[in-house]
Amino acid sequence: xxxxxxxxxxxxxxxxxxxxxxxxxxxxxxxxxxxxxxxxxxxxxxxxxxxxxxxxxxxxxxxxxxxxxxxxxxxxxxxxxxxxxxxxxxxxxxxxxxxxxxxxxxxxxxxxxxxxxxxxxxxxxxxxxxxxxxxxxxxxxxxxxxxxxxxxxxxxxxxxxxxxxxxxxxxxxxxxxxxxxxxxxxxxxxxxxxxxxxxxxxxxxxxxxxxxxxxxxxxxxxxxxxxxxxxxxxxxxxxxxxxxxxxxxxxxxxxxxxxxxxxxxxxxxxxxxxxxxxxxxxxxxxxxxxxxxxxxxxx
Length: 299
Description:
Blueprint: H1 2-6, H2 14-17, E1 23-30, E2 42-44, H3 53-71, E3 77-80, H4 88-95, E4 99-100, E5 106-107, E6 115-122, H5 145-149, E7 155-156, E8 159-160, H6 166-171, H7 179-182, E9 188-190, H8 194-197, H9 211-214, E10 221-222, H10 224-228, H11 233-240, H12 249-263, H13 270-276, H14 282-296
Parallel strand pairs: 2-9
Antiparallel strand pairs: 1-6, 2-10, 3-6, 4-5, 7-8
Helix pairs in contact: 12-14, 13-14
């Protein structure tokens, strides 16, 4: 994640990104949904059940930007969602719509942490007349549920250790997942919601009304056999293009599926795993071999 270091100087200085910026307009979009009953398949983090939020949210923000441009023709506006170097949690807190919890996620009064953040950089100076107070809240001093629930111990008083975070390992990390952390993945094939699910601020949150999130593309559970049998990069893109799962990549999603198959003791998937031991991708081949060794040691 060296890109975070490269962008450090831009995170808190939007004028370094664009010297004309006078305001940062912050927006949030809920993705909250209630999970169905557990299955013995690959579990997907809630934000990734539907269409890729970059496409959905950015389209909405661009519509707002266009409207602002028409109202203020001498100004310009640029929309981003998780695509600019800006620290969106910092700016959301500055705007007063959220605070940062112990799980290092932005939390609002209305949606807990089940939401996306986006921003519009504006050359026009906007002065808020009624600033929300969420930024002045904080986690209860006695609550450490998120730390206690983290399967890998990635959360602590020191913050978040991304090297141990299942969300990072299953989505952003390239290469093999460390042996010491593989069993902690459990059934998680893409992302992890454990620290959110136990958070008191996330209880009783209403479901999103965004139809493109409610129309599942991946859904809460992914068929492991289907992932292990994807024949090519092109087939992977045809199946997962437009879904956040595409972010893990052809190698990453199959790597994850191998580890989950081993963790769930899916003996029925041994034929697919054996096929992958000769995969041209050494990461996938090694992950398949690890799963086979786990399964065969119990047979």
